[in-house]
# Entry
Amino acid sequence: MNKKISLGAAIALMAIIASATFSVTMVYSRQTFNDTVHNIKEREAMYSKLAEIDKWVRQNYYGNLDDSALTDSLAKGYMAGTGDPYAKYLTVEEYSRQNQSGLSKSVGIGVVTSLDETGYIRVEEVYPESPALAADIQPGDLIVRIDETDVTKDNCEELQQSILGEAGTQIDVVVRRDNVDTPHPLTRRDVEKPTVYTNMTEDGVGYVQIVEFGANTADQFSRAVDKLVSEGANSLVFDVRSNQTGPIDQATRILDKLLPQGDIVSATYKDGSTQVLATSDPAFIDLPMVVLTNEKTASSAELFAQALKDYEQLGVKSVGTLTMGKGSMQETQQLSDGSAIDVTVAKYNSPSGLSFDGVGVKPDFEVKLTPDQAAALEALDPPAQDPQLKTLLEFDPQLKKAVELAATAAKTVAPATPAESASGGEDAPSVSEPSSSEEQGTQEDEEESSEDSSEEEPSQDEE
# Structure
């Protein structure tokens, strides 16, 4: 039976609905207006205070004001006042240097240098396939002369920067080793910065050290792991201790190679929304894996460690100490004059939805280093360059524990390779694709830098 209402009742109902809608809209609009006015008044008060300070200082300050430096300082102060520990203002020069430091290649002779206490420039590391390596320059050498200028305590910083230059240009350096000075005429060129180092223990544990997540780290990592697997590695140890820098997309590309199908990382934003930023395809490395962390492990490296642990079917264990707990996303916004600001815009979540920001990643096996052990580890730069890892294993209990876990797992686990599952072969690399049922189960379980640190490391430059 159809019920009918009169035209008058219908009009009255529509009027009630319109009135309710209008009331709700008015309340919301009034609140928005009040908030806007409140914010405007706060900003007006802030600008008025700055104007008052500026007027008084300009009238009374005995010295001369540099308006450009004053503007930069005001911008730095504003970012510091946000309360965001990772917010910062970058001058035009600082922003340019930050962009250059994120590149996978540098134009120079392929060395990392530091300022030696003697006043000379000390070579800390020599890059593979670089002009410096071809000239037999070695870590520990001192650069005592560049072109026609002797290196002194007064000019060493300036000369250190002068090692960089345009590709194809020549630089003459005099290197001192064992009190013998040797001149080297070198030609600058593009040199790829190594960020991944590998080695293999005698019992087949592949050691992979990721010193940072640079612009080319994922490609270097893929080549390094493939090489270790082809050489017979039966397990892998990933060392991300003291790794604090680099874009998260490099970490997610590496994790895509290691993990089965599923989410890798998501981000939760100011409005409460969460977005998946990266996922892994079905292919993965089917070998026992262990990850090494310490209190200086941060950001992308923390995601790397937590994501490996989240995929419980892989059985990845972590060794070391609690990580720093920097799980937030910073976005860089370039300003109209070429300067830029960094500010936190989201919090990262691991594959399981866990946020490690302010908490850190807890190791499965806590192993601490003594001050002497930590100092000895820092002296090996990078540790993976130690020829057989024997020296490192003697004084590094964290690595020793990780290698023991990996070796034990390799003896008790027999991973299935694609060749074994498809044709019964035995010599295929350990990269697996899950079955359809495994795939479904995994699916159900289913981005500046700059990174920043609470502790500053000694300054080193790459040339």
User: Anything to note?
Assistant: Confidence is low (pLDDT under 50) at residues 415-431, 433-459. DSSP finds 13 helices and 22 strands in the chain.
